[in-house]
Amino acid sequence: MDAQQFLAEFGHIANAPGGVARLRELVIQLAISGRLVERIESETTTSQAIEAAAELRRAYEKELDLRATRMHPPLHSKPFPVPDHWQWTRLEQICLYIQRGKGPKYVERSLTHVISQKCVQWSAFDLPSARFVADDSLGSYGKERFLCAGDLLWNSTGTGTAGRVAIYQPDESVTAVADSHVTVVRLANCSPRYLWCVIASPWVQSRIEPSHPDSLVSGTTQQVELNTSTARALPIPLPPIQEQSRIVAKVDELMALCDKLEEQQQARRKLQNKLRQSTQQAVASATSPHELQTTWARLADNFGRLFHAPEDVADLRQVILDLAFTGNISEPSERVTSDLVESLHLRKMQLSAEKRIKRETPVIDFPGIAEMLGSIPGQWAWVRLNDIASVVRGGSPRPAGDPKFYGGNIPFLKVADVTAARGMFVERFTSTITEAGLNKTREISKRTVLLTNSGATLGVPAICEFRTTFNDGIAAFIELNDAVFDKYLYLFLKSKTKWLQDIASRGQGQPNLNTEIIRSMWFPLAPISEQYRIVTRVSELMRFCDVLEANLKHAAVVGERVAVAAVASLTGIAIEQEEEPMKAPQTELVAPLRLGAAPDIKAQAPLATILARHHGEMSAKDLWQRFGGEIDAFYAQLKTEVAHGWILEPAPAEMREKPADAVSA
């Protein structure tokens, strides 16, 4: 292997998602390809070792009165290049015994363990997972079926379990046999650890899949089977016995380095998470526009260091939602008067008098509700959710599925319909009820705000885009006051999803939110015009999060492809990828872009920020590259910033063909 090539590719492999696992694959594949250690001329030849294995096998079969192994035809091809002093041979030619275990008669406890697939893990052999076989059934077991130290145990059935291999190394006092889902490979004179490397290599493991063109298994993706005959016939790249020992020592040394690298990456990831969380907490805790400006700038300047994976963006979304309801992302221009607050109560009384809603009991302060009261602008007011709407639950006709109630032409929402909503809105339903079922539930109008209130997915809000009925796992905010924008209420409820789940989990049994808890929640009522501005601003920031998350996903996919390609180029063993590798663009952007009006400090304008740092002008190509996202995300962001005037309307973009040598580079 070219050391320079390895060093050039190391960073790509190690830092990709699952990169250390790829490094381990690389080590194993290089080990079984003869590219980890040097040859020593005086060592016993491979052909001599194979001949010795044959003698040992014949003696073993004679001693145990076993039927002589019927060998497969000799190999006529070499799956991949190996050193000239190595030899390709079939697994059965270097073994004393290869056979599946047998189905045992299980008992609670006995002197003999039964090794199952659970015992065979990639991490190690796991004896505590073994069960026991009845002593009175051991007479049907030949001596060869009792496991010996150094046996390779190879899982041979089941999707996700077939292919795993472990070396049996128990205490001397342990007696064990294998069940029928495990193949026992007992070697004659070869290193079990080296053969473990062969079976664990990408060259073998990638073929434990029925769809592979050179598959080792039969069956379907739901249930795969590794036949004993296939295991016997497996080609093995065999080095001299002494070289096997040196290879194993080098593999163990490099695997220890991989373990250390993985530990360092995990420690770095923990530190990165703590730094990101503390930086975001500083943003969320800002008490003034100046403090918000300072903390947000610190966050923006370190996006590349703080955000590593798509899931990292979830906390940023929560920070944005929390900021929205402290008044720090909008400029108050009006105030919520005491008369308006009083009118909320009067309207609820009027609705009750008109029998449009049921008469409500006084609101109760449940444990934890007071925690919601925080700092809000002086122009806002704290009110209860019960003040702005009537909170009601749906109903579920019983028994479920009864054709008397279900299958009509009236839409009927379930919790899954709400949680499956894309963005704010529920746009479809998966169940219907009849007129008889309608009498057992409740109907709501279009643009009603909903909130799931039971099960593992409680606390999820949505706005329904059509008239419908709904089940008892959903709460609805009916008769919403005109002083509240439905999208503003949606965002508030979304900001409290985790809080609601925590409140609900304090009880016993399945989490549940009764309507009394929802009614009692405090709600930061902003002037209606400011509610609209907040919704617009949050939507802009969430689009930025969408772009950031998409870029991180894209980077992860590209990184993984690069790692796979690097391992393939170094080993010569191709690993199939789901998608075609990215191709270098054949064109480049040459249109210049210039800074326009300076964006507000709270505005999310990454492109204008980049321009400002580079004297207000640069080519679209350079700006795109510094932006670091996909071209579609770049254009979407550019369009937004041009619309706001932060970037001047550019001249028509010119696309220039790249020279051939530039493309290949």
Tell me what you see in this structure:
The protein has 665 residues and is an alpha+beta fold. It folds into 3 domains: 44-239, Adenine-n6-DNA-methyltransferase TaqI, Chain A, domain 2; 338-526, DNA methylase specificity domains (Adenine-n6-DNA-methyltransferase TaqI, Chain A, domain 2, Alpha-Beta Complex), CATH 3.90.220; 583-664, Arc Repressor Mutant, subunit A (Orthogonal Bundle), CATH 1.10.10. The protein has 22 helices and 27 strands. The strands form 9 sheets. The protein has a 5-stranded mixed sheet. A 4-stranded antiparallel sheet has the order 2-9-6-7. Strand 10 and strand 11 form a beta hairpin. It is globular and about 100 Å long.
Low-confidence stretches: 577-589, 653-665
CATH class of the largest domain: Alpha Beta
CATH architectural label of the largest domain: Alpha-Beta Complex
Radius of gyration: 34 Å
Relevant CATH superfamily of the largest domain: DNA methylase specificity domains
Query: Biggest sheet, open or closed, and with what strands and sense?
Result: 5 strands, mixed
Mean pLDDT over all positions: 86
Whole-number total of structural domains: 3
Individual helix count: 22
The CA-CA distance between the termini, in Å, is 23 Å
CATH topology name of the largest domain:
Adenine-n6-DNA-methyltransferase TaqI, Chain A, domain 2
